[in-house]
Amino acid sequence: MPVTHLFAWLRAHDALLWWLGALSLVSFIGTLVVIPMLVVRLPADYFMRDRPTWQTSQRSHPTLRLLGVVLKNLLGFVCIIAGLIMLVLPGQGVLTILIGLTLMNFPGKHTLELRIVQQPTVLHAINWMRLRAQRPPLEVPAYDGTPRAPQ
What we know:
Blueprint: H1 2-12, H2 14-41, H3 62-86, H4 93-103, H5 109-117, H6 120-132
């Protein structure tokens, strides 16, 4: 009996399913284009630094800097949510989450990024993209299994 209810619900929400399918396809194609562009732009020593250096223009108005930080964090949050969705839908979920994390500012961010990028499959995918763009591979400290102190 529950299967018939499921089919009835699916028939009643046909337009919603089409929109979700279209959104999934657009996000999948978008990540195939955007994620490699962002991965290639990372400095090769990004993960070797204790803390990433942020270069902000001191010439811009403080309100514009704050707006830029808010928009960057919002974009990072959207990437993380999209990456989580892509873990079950088509797309590069883990890489999208990693890009979202690099955009955001929060305590412990660098440690979390490092734990993700130290996964062999993630590092291999990133370095493959960088190799195709004729960029040097990312330099990543070896993960020895012990947690690092928060930064």
